[in-house]
Design a protein that fits this description.
This protein has 582 residues and is mainly α. Helix content is 61%, strand content 6%. The model has no long low-confidence stretch (mean pLDDT 91).
């Protein structure tokens, strides 16, 4: 069969390389895309500052078993991801670099596994195509350079899928089979859902029942021992944590255990309290946008995919598992786009064999070319609107910045990215549409992770707020904050106090008033909003705007003469002789 144009535009010498040489070449290219920009920005809200601060406190305190945030237990996530940031921070001494390294290295490992699996199941062409398809999906590169847990848990899940496929379709390989279950356990203590590769057993069992010879040597009674490997890895963290909590015996420690084991797992899945979306959210919003253009490509290759399934049933297993993952997350009322990232590598791998040997449907190239042109026009238009201070655009970003020069610089960057898309369309007109799209996307990503980071850094950090507070307070002052954000601890040059993440607003305010009454030279950073019961905003110093909120600085003059005592005196102070992100 004729090779796909996407393959024919790749240098033929590429596939004559030894497998390891080709893998290193692909990983080197991926490393340029993933590591460019690391060290150029700080942790950005919402999740990154929290994980970075937890990791910093692990290194500072030497207590790594239970994550701490601002001196208080952090029960929302298991510790593995934060351990990895802490490890890189301990090794490098640079938190601004360390916080992004785990996601970057895990993403490289994911790409390597996808290539190796595609090569073993088919050939080097297919493995290469699978890697490029995975990188072209925006969600992959976004998460590869984001300090969220999802890139890491996606990596562990990919390792587990790799082990199961190696065993059932290229095996027997019992070592890989049990390694798969062990990595499911690692995924569980990274982010709960690490067991998802176990769903792959369902289509494998169905195929096994239809053709008992297919898995005669791999689907045996020994498979039942796999979950014990998973539980052993979970126990390696769970048992020490349980012993430590019982030894402490405090109310806070017991609350941590109950939260991490029950509220953040089954309760969060079955009765979510945030990110509520309809059942079709992933199908109509996440997959079409964050996985683009893979869903469109799948539809354009539907006939070759069906033919490939008849030849290699592993493709059916990959697609069935991807569908099961989507169904699993769709059942829960709480949905976020990043939840689907673990399914993306196997979906890319399932498309690669068809694209390696067949042309997509005739409608695909002109449609992708049209969308390519539309992206270029849209970006250029937005850039011109920014230059001309278009009222709607100014209003849109007014919560972040009201500096016209910054808006104009952002407009220049967006315009430049648009020109990249337009130029790639003109210069590479004779190149296959998917190749043009890939090149434009990679160049745009490099511009964003360099130029874009420099523009966004002041808008995504509270440097201006803390600088204004430190100028208004004595050099030996202490800062406190109601409804604190971890990023303030990371950037503060003064001792920083918060009043418990788990206290309600009323109790936080009462504790803040009591803390100021007991602490000389204390000042309080608060959001500029009405309704304070223990303080008055009259005479407060306006600090500026960050994270779409305006902030004030309260001193002794803003304290009311009295305030009801809190139900429990609770505050946590972090000594900060200097920032950790400089």
């Amino acid at each position: 069969m004729p090779a796909s144009p996407f393959v024919r535009h790749l240098p033929e010498d590429l596939f004559s390389l030894h497998r390891n040489q080709l893998l290193l070449l692909l990983l080197a290219f991926a490393a340029v895309m993933i590591f460019t920009g690391i060290g150029l920005r700080s942790p950005w809200p919402a999740d990154e500052p929290r994980f970075a601060e937890v990791a910093r406190e692990m290194v500072a305190s030497g207590q790594w078993l239970i994550p701490m945030r601002g001196g208080e237990f952090y029960p929302d996530k298991p510790p593995v991801f934060m351990w990895s940031i802490a490890l890189f921070y301990w090794l490098t001494g640079n938190l601004k670099v360390a916080f992004l390294l785990p996601s970057a290295f895990c993403s490289l490992l994911t790409l390597g596994l996808v290539f190796d699996l595609g090569t073993r199941l088919w050939n080097q062409r297919t493995g290469t195509i699978a890697v490029l398809l995975l990188m072209i999906a925006p969600q992959f590169l976004i998460q590869a350079q984001t300090a969220q847990i999802d890139a890491m848990v996606a990596c562990w899940i990919t390792v587990a899928c790799y082990g199961l496929i190696r065993h059932f379709f290229t095996g027997p390989a019992w070592g890989w089979y049990f390694a798969a279950w062990a990595f499911m356990g690692l995924g569980i203590i990274t982010k709960g859902v690490g067991f998802l590769p176990a769903l792959m057993v369902i289509p494998i069992l169905v195929l096994g029942l239809r053709d008992r010879q297919l898995f005669a040597d791999t689907l045996t009674w020994r498979c039942a021992l796999g979950p014990f490997a998973m539980m052993a890895v979970v126990a390696a963290w769970l048992v020490p944590m349980e012993l430590y909590v019982n030894n402490l015996g405090t109310e806070e420690a017991l609350a941590y255990r109950n939260n991490i084991l029950f509220k953040q797992t089954g309760e969060r899945y079955a009765d979510s309290w945030g990110h509520i979306q309809p059942w079709h959210y992933y199908l109509v919003s996440v997959i079409p946008s964050l996985w683009f253009p893979l869903p469109l490509l799948f539809l354009a290759l539907i006939r070759p995919v069906k033919e490939a399934i008849r030849q290699r049933p592993v493709i059916l297993v990959l697609l069935a598992w991807t569908a099961l993952v989507v169904v699993f997350f769709s059942i829960s009322p709480g949905k976020r786009g990043v939840y689907l990232l673990p399914a993306l590598p196997m979906f890319a791998l399932s498309i690669a064999p068809a694209l390696s040997a067949h042309r997509p449907a005739r409608w695909f190239p002109p449609l992708l070319t049209g969308l390519h042109l539309l992206f270029a026009i849209a970006l250029i238009t937005v850039g011109i609107m920014a230059w001309s201070d278009h009222p709607k655009l100014v209003e849109k970003i007014s919560d972040y910045s009201q500096d016209p020069a910054r808006l104009h610089e952002a407009g220049t960057m967006v315009f430049s990215v648009g020109m990249v898309w337009l130029a790639s369309l003109a210069v590479l007109w004779r190149t296959y549409a998917l190749g043009r799209f890939f090149i434009a996307l990679m160049i745009s990503w490099l511009l964003y992770t360099t130029w874009g980071y420099r523009i966004l850094e002041p808008l995504r950090t509270p440097r201006n707020i803390l600088a204004a507070a430190e100028q208004s307070a004595p050099s030996d002052a202490q800062l406190g904050m109601i409804d604190f954000k971890e990023q303030f601890i990371l950037f503060s040059r003064l001792d920083f106090t918060h009043f418990s993440y788990f206290s309600n607003r009323e109790q936080e305010e009462r504790n803040a008033w009591l803390w100021m009454a007991k602490t000389a030279g204390s000042y309080l950073i608060v959001e500029d909003q009405p309704g304070y019961q223990c303080f008055t905003r009259n005479g407060a110093i306006f600090l500026g705007t960050a994270h779409r909120d305006s902030y004030l600085l309260f001193g002794d003059e803003q304290m009311k003469t009295s305030c009801a005592p809190p139900d429990k005196m609770k505050w946590y102070t972090t000594p900060t002789p200097g920032t950790w992100l400089d």
